[in-house]
Automatic annotation (TrEMBL):
InterPro entries: Lipoprotein_repeat (IPR005297), SCO0930-like (IPR047910). Residues 284-312 are annotated as: Disordered. This is Lipoprotein. The lineage of its organism: Bacteria, Bacillati, Actinomycetota, Actinomycetes, Kitasatosporales. NCBIfam families: SCO0930_lipo. It comes from the Bacteria. GO terms for biological process: alkane catabolic process. It comes from Streptomyces cadmiisoli. Pfam families: Lipoprotein_15 (PF03640). Residues 1-25 form the signal peptide.
Amino acid sequence: MKTSWRSASLVASAVAVLALTTACGQDSGTQSASQNVGASAAAGGYGGTGLGTDAGAAADGQQAGAQAAPAGKLAVSANAELGKVLIDSAGRTLYRFDQDTAEPPKSTCEGDCATAWPPVPAGDAEAGEGIDAALLGEVTRPDGTKQLTVAGWPAYRFAKDVNPGDTKGQGVGGTWYALAPDGKKAEVADLPGLSTRKDPKLGEIVVDKNGHTVYRFMKDEAWPKPVSACNGECLEKWPVVAPVGANDTKGLDKEGLMSFTRSDGVKQQTVDCWPIYTFAGDKKPGDTNGQGVGGTWYAVSPDGKPVGAPAK
């Protein structure tokens, strides 16, 4: 009886796999980890500030005062995408700049850069729980003011971070990063090839291994087999997500989770048999700038449905 049960189980599993493959009409999703195929937009912003035409906004009234306020008692914030991040007593994220140096400490952010990235005054800064007080110091800026340092790295705020917990400065220009408690860069934690995250506006959505939002194109087809309608120049803005192993996912419905071969010969991942993409306009993890673009591009829910798309 035992042998017979196992044989029946194996047959049933084989039939299920065959049915799923037939439904999508393409390859299984057991290939290499995710990578984006196609062009990705470079991080922009004047002098790496990322403020563009809003550069003068930080100099306005209360916002400017808040940005120049002493750090107070520093704390460690648990960020869903970046792990542990340093924040000041008001909950604002602290950043470091790759063009600065820690040994010896030196700030190279002045003028318009310092408007976009206000230096954190050393002032009354003190270490809170989980922070080594020995890592806190100060550096004298060219204008004579004292700036807080963490493990030698000058600390800044970002003018576009309006609310406590904002991390809009993360990855700007490829040179600005949130500070981890040890002074290192807070970067995207290791993620599976595909996983999910809770977006404050869109709810539970799918992200790739870099934490970037995954999208669906409403002109694509899923049945009887996946077909991508995004080709040529379209792929410059919407890079395809390459195949992901079934065991390299977390939180997704695995039915219909497989790859297919596009008309250009490139293999592309699907969720619920629908081709998936990222958006070159998303500069950092958590961005959803592709949502609703052209009324045809939408973030993907764990079951493959387009989030926020009009009902048909």
